Amino acid sequence: MPRIEERDKLPDDFLKSLGFPSITVHQTFTHFDFTLPGRRVLVIGPMGSGKTEFSARVWRDAAIAQKKSDVIRRLTSTNGVDRRKVFFVRSEIDGQRFQEYPGDALAYRNGYIRCGENIARIRDSFGLEQVLADNPEIGTFIIDEASFFDERIAYVVRNHSLERGILFIFPTLILNFRRDIFNSTARLMLDIATDVIPLTAYCEHPDCMKDAFYTYRYYRVDGQECPALYFDPLIIVGGDTQKDDPLNPNYCSRCDEHHYLPAKEYTFFHLKPLGERASRGDAGPLRDEMYALKHHISESALCQHMDQRYGSRPDAEIFMNAIKPGCLAEKALIYLFCEQNLLAEDLLVRLVYELELDRVYMTKVLSDNLRPVSFEQPLLTVVD
Fold it and tell me: Is residue 11 assigned to a domain?
């Protein structure tokens, strides 16, 4: 079997035989190769770059390959599994996307294909193990947005690919809206990958046609674009439709120039140190900042930081819009609790009640981020 890079090359003499002049030859867009066992293929790119649509193409290629003879079956099979048989797996927490499509749809932004019984929604790596056990003849599993799952999934995948020759394809975000590695699961997926297929999209800024590598999160308030602050919750589950709700974000692909990310310095110069002080028993300064974020935004350290950092820039308005969406104090506490592990749950609950924060919003987002909290009325509501 030729190496992948050799197979993908298109010889110059082939084009010359067709009468083409001397031109730049790009890599061919080939049908998917089901003959190589044990591959773990990452398909990465920003939202809207066509990751799931790539998966749909793999599905269609598999349908064609299954019509081939036993000669091909022997090439695509290992240890009783046939890699031409494809199964699609999606996260349970991603259920709000593509609600207008059938339940068995492998759906993407420009359409869908139906998977019949070869589709499942799972919550974690244990759910994937069950799907693998229930479908012992399937040789290719497409796992959508693998970064939404626990770290253990990387080793479940590696073991099954090495021991049984199963092919795994992961259309997934590797970078989050902050342009950081999405999470520890994403980092482990990079570690175990055998192939990486990067995709780009047009920057969706109306005045730009550059390649976009990043996913941009923003809110719409009174018709204005409001970039998400750096400490916005890592995961906010929602659909793909555009929303004019200050608590529900929108996403698009953006280039470096038009990917706005305010308050990163504030997060590490102010917010995280306040959380560290609170973790040592001095919660007063954190409480004061959260009170300002909730009730008197102009008096907050965040507002002062934004003024100093962005006030003199020609694009100051777009950065300053970032403080218009609601629940800034709620988002800050979620960041300190979920991602930095600096706040004890009882302190979080007491602050929520004392500052009259939005418990409905926090309950949903904490659950989305797999850190559910019950906001029962605390016995002690005074923070020293």
Answer: no
